[in-house]
Write a structure and sequence with these properties.
heterodimer; A: 268 residues; mainly alpha; 12 helices; B: 296 residues; MetI-like fold; 14 helices; 76% helix; 0% strand; globular
């Protein structure tokens, strides 16, 4: 019997995975290197730069700033996104596909342009939140909410509406039917969506570019500003913590929802 | 009206307050997305005045005339489009075998593991991934160290701070999006199609070229448009991998606004970039609708 996957295809795929993953591995190695910078072959491993990161004012405060911003973004995105996903799944409003596309559009539209638009809007409208955490918060909510809508929408699509209808026909009020039947069934989808929202905000660069202030920067901006001039191994050490956070959240997402199913619904 | 819809009609779906669910997000998007982008469009029609952000009532096409009459901006627009097109093609070539292998891996644990790798790299902050790319491709980077220790080159080979470097970086950035789009489509192709071709005597290669590849066409088209839109919009990749030597539209926007305080002209470039990207997205959405109805 022949192999299911032809050998040339397999080799090309392995090379592709190297291209995707090797830079990430390099960051981990650069953060753990003994020397001043990463050489090939590596000189040896040490926790020197990890300790340096934990003592650095610049990266540690940026790390916690991003963490706080991502938590704030996660809370609002989860609430607004879940409510909107419920509406889109349950209404028979003709424009709901267009509405969904509208809510998802920030993901693919240029973040620098949207960040610039918000920056100018905050100045001209006199809101006084340009280059503050509040302005960043608003920009991040725009870019994180689509992921909540996608994830919650997928779990609503697999949920059998007749369960809720049965509860209603047995006399439950709409709120009670939602609380007792629908919510427990989509709770894991909501949790997965909120994790996505967190991690998208934590790694957000393009929107933050115009909105962040010099002394309170999210981690990606702080890393970018130093990376323009030189490679600092403690930036790579900060990267190790970010990589750990991302892997943990994707693993957690996988426990909550079926990642395969999430993909199948992407076009819907 | 069937029984089921009659029951549903009494449920949450027909209830008056279901609108309340979507009102907050609509309000948020109108206030912080539609209005700011709309004002940006308006700003681009204001006379250029350094340092001024506020809108004025004078309308002019001067900024657009300036954009389309200066060769360096036209070249930047052309370079952006060329870059995004090259990246779409290369990303497709690199991603297709990866997506094919993921889609054909039947062992659920192994399949999930591969998807987790793709998703985790997609979610990881681009600055961190570019740090890795720069350590690999720099003049003193790993590839140049290896080439020199093997005596293949005398001086360093310039792998970044040029157009090539930006392409390398953007492909790394766009790969997960292309893979995820293709996996969905390839998984949806019934294996019986290829089996039928094989049983009629087609070689494996011929069956793939004549059946599987054409059947993945909707995914190939929508994935390429998605990658085009994402890579033409990227600031961080040209900034770091091009070292500001590859002047694409997002770099020009930042320079006009943050370095020269020319808000009106910055807005003009932003509008042009926004329209190019939105066109690609609109075609993507249109294709997505047709392909989901057409294939099955």
């Amino acid at each position: 019997m022949e192999r299911k996957i032809p050998l040339p295809m397999l080799i090309l795929a392995i090379l592709g995975f190297c291209y995707l993953l090797f830079p990430i591995l390099v960051v981990v190695l650069a953060g753990l290197t003994t020397g001043e910078f990463l050489t090939f072959p590596p000189k040896g491993l040490s926790l020197r730069w990890v300790i340096s990161f934990l003592n650095s004012e610049k990266y540690l405060s940026a790390f916690f700033f991003s963490f706080k911003l991502a938590l704030m973004t996660m809370i609002v995105s989860t609430i607004l996104g879940t409510a909107a996903a419920l509406f889109i799944a349950r209404s028979r409003f003709v424009g709901r596909t267009a509405l969904r596309a509208f809510f998802l559009s920030p993901v693919v539209l240029p973040g620098v342009v949207v960040g610039f638009a918000l920056y100018a809007f905050f100045i001209t409208s006199g809101l006084g939140i340009s280059r503050t955490i509040w302005g960043l918060w608003i920009g991040h909510i725009l870019y994180s909410t689509p992921y909540v809508i996608g994830t919650v929408g997928a779990s609503l699509a697999t949920f059998d509406v007749s369960l809720e209808e049965a509860a209603r026909s047995l006399g439950a009020s709409p709120m009670r039917a939602f609380r007792k039947i629908t919510f427990p069934n989509i709770a894991q989808g909501i949790q997965a969506g909120s994790i996505f929202a967190f991690i998208v905000s934590f790694g957000q660069f393009e929107v933050s570019l115009f909105l962040s202030a010099p002394n309170s920067e999210p981690l990606p901006i702080a890393m970018y500003n130093s990376l323009r001039y030189k490679f600092e191994p403690d930036a790579a050490a900060a990267g190790i913590f970010a990589i750990t956070l991302v892997i943990a959240s994707v693993l957690l997402t996988n426990r909550l929802v079926n990642i395969r199913r999430l993909l199948e619904r992407q076009d819907g | 009206m069937t029984k089921a819809t009659a029951v549903r009609a009494s449920g949450l779906s027909q209830h008056q307050f279901k609108w309340l669910l979507v009102v907050p997000l609509v309000a948020f998007f109108v206030l912080f997305f539609v209005i700011p982008v709309g004002l940006l469009f308006a700003t681009s029609f204001n006379p250029a005045k350094v340092g001024q952000v506020a809108l004025v009532s004078d309308l002019t096409f001067d900024n657009y005339i300036r954009f389309f009459s200066r060769s360096n901006y036209l070249i930047a627009a052309g370079r952006s489009i060329l870059l995004a097109s090259i990246v779409s093609v290369i990303t497709l070539i690199v991603a297709y075998p990866m997506a094919f292998v993921i889609a054909k891996t039947e062992n659920p644990a192994r399949n999930t593991f591969l998807l987790i790798l793709v998703l985790a790299s997609m979610q990881l902050d681009m600055v961190i991934r570019l740090y890795g790319m720069m350590v690999i491709l720099g003049d003193n980077g790993l590839i140049n160290q290896i080439l020199q220790s093997m005596g293949l080159t005398d001086g360093p080979v310039a792998l970044m701070y040029n157009f090539r470097g930006v392409v390398f970086g953007l492909v790394q950035f766009a790969l997960p999006f292309m893979i995820l789009t293709l996996v969905g489509v390839i998984m949806g192709i019934p294996p019986s199609l290829e089996e039928a071709a094989r049983s009629l005597g087609a070689s494996r290669r011929r069956a793939f070229m004549r059946v599987t590849l054409p059947a993945s066409m909707p995914g190939i088209l929508s994935g390429s448009l998605l990658v085009f839109a994402l890579s033409i919009s990227s600031y961080i990749v040209p900034a770091l991998m091009g070292g500001f030597r590859v002047g694409v539209l997002p770099i020009h926007i930042y320079q006009q606004v943050a370095e020269s305080a020319r808000f009106q002209f910055g807005a003009t470039i932003a509008v042009i970039l926004f329209l190019i990207s939105a066109t690609a997205v609109a075609v993507y959405l249109k294709l997505g609708k047709r392909s989901s109805g057409g294939l099955a």
